Structure formats: structure tokens, C-alpha cells
């Protein structure tokens, strides 16, 4: 309980206040800015490319189950991809190594196509459980990419050492690929083999960025303001410690740096 002190309480109050302030601002219709994320902007381009070439889309939601926050982010992205695909008449293939995720992906596809007014596309789409082994699922996904003549491939979620196997499969099939993960040690492999990569915290801002839903949008912007506040606090502490040193009678820098 060493961290349960008044400084932490104050910091939590500031962060919570900033988030609630920005949520309220978004609900009032105030425009909140999130910088452009090229990988998300390219989703419609990838879906349109697939429609032109006549092939399906392939989506892989990572190697983790629904308890992983990256998988939750991937669900929101798949929903957006389905709604975009509904405009072009694309069908979607989803591959997974986790049986528990099969009904979840199926429900997302059905609900998204129905919301877009194209429920018939859900019956043409398919969720394929390949194998509980990550290596075999990656190889099986490559086979699906080649056999189904997939034109665009989306890789979003948590990834392990198999990340390069998935993305290289897309390269073999000649797909346009968009990937996203917060597993920073896998990002170099995606950068080397994909057209666009959504990196680290960008993945968690995807739903807010794509839907512009006020609560999610305000939360993202409010957290950014909180990070800015924390950065200013640290800089102030460093300046106080450098300029005044231990001879400062008020010891301002000590209180600031304790955060």
C-alpha cells in the first residue's frame, strides 16, 4: 500500500476529471481531434481493391482469446470492415486458432452486415477454425489466402512469433495487408511485410477513431490530456530539482517527483 497516498489520489482525480470533461465536450457536439491513422484510413481502399479483383477479404484477430484487450479492439475493427464491405458486396473469411472465438466472430459478422442492410453477405462469409497450434493456423491461413484468391488481408490483435508467418502468407498471395498490434516486439515484422501498420496505442483508439462515438472519443482525448499533464508535472519537477537543488527551503521538487 506504499502507493496509496494523497498524491496518487490527486493524480487519479485529475485524470478522471480530464476524461469526464472531454466526454461531456464530445456529447455537446464539440469537435475533438484525433490525428489521422493511415492504417485505418486505408481500410476502405483495401476493401475496394478486393471488390475490384473479385476476391474475398480475410481477417485474422490475433492469437489471444476474448480476455485480451487487443482482441476486444480487433472486434471493433472487424465490425467496421464488415460495414465497409457491405457497401461493396464483399464476403469475409476469418481464420482462428481458438474454438472459443468462432461464435464471437460469427456474431460480429452477422450483426455488422445486418446493421449495414446486407444480411445475406453474412451467410456467404465464413469463420474457419484451423488448428489450436499457432504454426499450423498460420500455414492454414496462407493456404486459405492462396486457394480463395484473397485480395486484402487484415491482421489485428495480439500476436506472438507467428506474426511473420501470417504476414508472409499474405505476401505470397499478393494481398494488400493492414496489420495492427500493441505487441511492440512483433511490429518490425509487420512493418517489413505489410502495407500499413497500426502500432501500439493506436490499436486501442481504433473504435473511437472509426465510430466517433462521444464516450469513446472523449475518453481517448481525455487520456491524452492526462498524459500531457503528467509530462508537464515531470518536467516541472526536473526543473525544480535542477535549479533549486536540495537547498530549496520549500522542497517543491520532492513533492512533485514523488508522483
Structure description:
There is one protein chain. The protein is of the alpha/beta class and 259 residues long. The protein folds into two domains: 6-33 and 213-257, no CATH class; 38-204, Rossmann fold, CATH 3.40.50. It has helices at 6-27, 38-41, 43-53, 69-88, 102-115, 120-124, 134-147, 163-173, 187-193, 201-204, 206-211, 214-243, 252-257; strands spanning 57-60, 92-96, 126-129, 152-156, 176-181, 196-199. It has a six-stranded parallel beta sheet, with helices on both faces. Strand 5, helix 9 (187-193) and strand 6 (196-199) form a beta-alpha-beta unit. It is globular, with a radius of gyration of 22 Å. It starts with 5 loop residues before the first helix and ends with a helix. The mean pLDDT is 84.
Approximate helicity band: 55-70%
Label the CATH architecture of the largest domain: 3-Layer(aba) Sandwich
Order of helices and strands: HHHEHEHHEHEHEHEHHHH
Mean pLDDT: 84
Number of extended strands: 6
How many domains, as an integer?
A: 2
- The third-level CATH topology of the largest domain is Rossmann fold
Largest sheet properties: 6 strands, parallel
Structural class: alpha/beta
Characterize the overall form: globular
β-strand amount: 5-15%
* Gap between N and C termini: 15 Å
CATH class of the largest domain: Alpha Beta
Taking Cα atoms only, what radius of gyration do you get, to the nearest Å? 22 Å
Low-confidence stretches: none
Amino acid at each position: 500500500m506504499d502507493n496509496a497516498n494523497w498524491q496518487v489520489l490527486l493524480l487519479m482525480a485529475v485524470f478522471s476529471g480530464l476524461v469526464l470533461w472531454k466526454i461531456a465536450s464530445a456529447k455537446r457536439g464539440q469537435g475533438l481531434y484525433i490525428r489521422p491513422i493511415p492504417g485505418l484510413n486505408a481500410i476502405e481502399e483495401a476493401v475496394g481493391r478486393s471488390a475490384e479483383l473479385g476476391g474475398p477479404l480475410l481477417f485474422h484477430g490475433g492469437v489471444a482469446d476474448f480476455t485480451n484487450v487487443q482482441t476486444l479492439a480487433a472486434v471493433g475493427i472487424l465490425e467496421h470492415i464488415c460495414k465497409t464491405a457491405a457497401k461493396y458486396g464483399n464476403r469475409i473469411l476469418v481464420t482462428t486458432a481458438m474454438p472459443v472465438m468462432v461464435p464471437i466472430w460469427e456474431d460480429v459478422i452477422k450483426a455488422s452486415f445486418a446493421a449495414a442492410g446486407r444480411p445475406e453477405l453474412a451467410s456467404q462469409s465464413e469463420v474457419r477454425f484451423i488448428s489450436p497450434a499457432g504454426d499450423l493456423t498460420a500455414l492454414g491461413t496462407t493456404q486459405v489466402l492462396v486457394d480463395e484468391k484473397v485480395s486484402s488481408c487484415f491482421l489485428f490483435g495480439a500476436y506472438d512469433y507467428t506474426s511473420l508467418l501470417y504476414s508472409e502468407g499474405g505476401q505470397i498471395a499478393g494481398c494488400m495487408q493492414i496489420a495492427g498490434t500493441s505487441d511492440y516486439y512483433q511490429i518490425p515484422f509487420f512493418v517489413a511485410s505489410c502495407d500499413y501498420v497500426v502500432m501500439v496505442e493506436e490499436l486501442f483508439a481504433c473504435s473511437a477513431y472509426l465510430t466517433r462515438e462521444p464516450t469513446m472519443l472523449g475518453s481517448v482525448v481525455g487520456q491524452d490530456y492526462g498524459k500531457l499533464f503528467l509530462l508537464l508535472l515531470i518536467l516541472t519537477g526536473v526543473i525544480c530539482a535542477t535549479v533549486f537543488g536540495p537547498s530549496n527551503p520549500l522542497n517543491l521538487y520532492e513533492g512533485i517527483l514523488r508522483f
